[in-house]
Write a structure and sequence with these properties.
With about 475 residues, the protein is an alpha+beta fold. Among the domains are: about 55-170, 2-Layer Sandwich (Beta-Lactamase), CATH 3.30.450.20; about 300-460, Histidine kinase-like ATPase, C-terminal domain (Heat Shock Protein 90), CATH 3.30.565.10. The protein has helices at about 1-35, 55-70, 90-95, 100, 115-125, 170-260, 265-300, 310-325, 345-360, 395-400, 410-415, 420-430, 460-470, 470-484; strands spanning about 45, 50-55, 75-80, 85, 130-140, 145-155, 160-170, 305-310, 330-335, 340-345, 370-375, 380-385, 435-440, 445-455. The strands form four sheets. A five-stranded antiparallel β-sheet has the order 4-3-7-6-5. Strands 9-11-12-14-13 form a five-stranded mixed β-sheet. Strands 1-2 form a two-stranded antiparallel ribbon. Helix 6 runs antiparallel to helix 7 (about 265-300), helix 7 runs parallel beside helix 12 (about 420-430) and helix 9 packs antiparallel against helix 12. The N and C termini lie far apart (about 165 Å). The model is unreliable at about 405-420 and about 480-484 (pLDDT under 50).
Amino acid sequence: MVKNIIELLEETEKLSKENAVLQKLLRNALESIEGFKSDKIDALVIANEKALKVYTEITADQPYRILVEKMHEGAVTLSEDGTILFCNSYFANMVGLPLQKVIGTIFENYIGDSLKKRFEALLNKEETVNALKEEVIIYASDGRHIPVLMTVNAFMLHNNFVLSIIITDLTIQNENQERLKRRTKQLEDKNLELESTNKELAFQIKEKEKRGEELSIAKTDVKELEGLNIHKEKVLATLSHDLRSPLAGIIGLADLLKENFETFENSTVKEMLELLYKSSTDELNMLDSLVEWARIKYASEAFSPENIELVQYVKKVFETLNENAAAKNLNLHNEIEENITVFADGKMLLSILQNIVSNSIKHTPEGGKITVSGIRNEDKIIVEVKDTGIGMSKAIKDKLFTPQMVSLSNARKENKGAGIGLLLVKGFLEKNGGEIWAESIEGEGSSFYFTLPAKEPDNMKIQFQNDQSHLAEDQTNTKSQIQL
């Protein structure tokens, strides 16, 4: 029991000592606070295990003063009436005045009228400011207008209302932006120029390709013309021979008959007259073909296409060739519908039908049949002339519209025809905007197909005008060839 009382007394004494120490520390702290309040203390020493550190009012404020002075932005503190209480050198340099001449002046001297009203409202507390940030203009003493970003903060200092202003010079930034705008504009102009250049290049490339195509076509045309010229010379040479030889025979036979008419028997005279008639008829047919060829080649003014009822022209051809067909007991069938019309030159259409039907009559055995029919296919009419004749081989069919001129004489002698008629047909059809082809089976017969426009094509007027524009030149060339 006694032991417990002793321990309790010792613990109480220990606590009393600790309390005394704490009271002493508290008194020292209160004295320090009072000293700071009464400005009796201007330094504070703090000790630790390594060294003593002394803090004074000056040393505590110095880092912040250096920071504000060295910063690359203007710093200004205004009193409640707008007087500059403090500014750093950067702001003084910005407005072009010594630091001592700036402090104490009115801040409104350096801003515009519109901003002055705003600052009056701020200083009069008519407008609450926590943090105001705007781009404004600062007016320097030398008249320069300086674009700046102004940040304004309001706070209480020693129970006094002040405005703290940070001013960032935007001159370089704006100049960079202007340079960037100019550069952007230059780039846009360059892009437009490049686009224009690209379009021009694309146009030139297209024109070059077009000229290349035209040149290629021209080369092809030249090659074709060279071939046609060679072909023409062969045709003229062959026709000259084919015309002169029969005429020479006709003249010789006629002269023989004239000199010996009284001594020849009647049967011999009749046989010779029949031979003269046949030779003369063949020669006339050849001349007719040549006239027709010259007509489509050199007489463009005679080309006068119009809307034609096809059935009527087939009837005319059948009437013309009916006697020839009857001689071989051939049936001619016109299956063209009444409402089918074509846009073509009437004389050429008659020649086309007459040549093809006549050719079918020539190669169809007795008792056969020849049929002419037609169907509409979009904007053209397809006409078929079908016979039950002897047909032809593929080799003959492939040469129908491009006969070899070297075989003209032999074909003429064999009375098979030299293909002049089909060449005329092909020329007439091309002139009228059509085409021709054939299908045939040996021993069964042949079908000749040709097309003609159902109505006037858009390009036919242009072609007709072009043909007439070259008419004079063609006729001059023809006269030159005849003279040669």
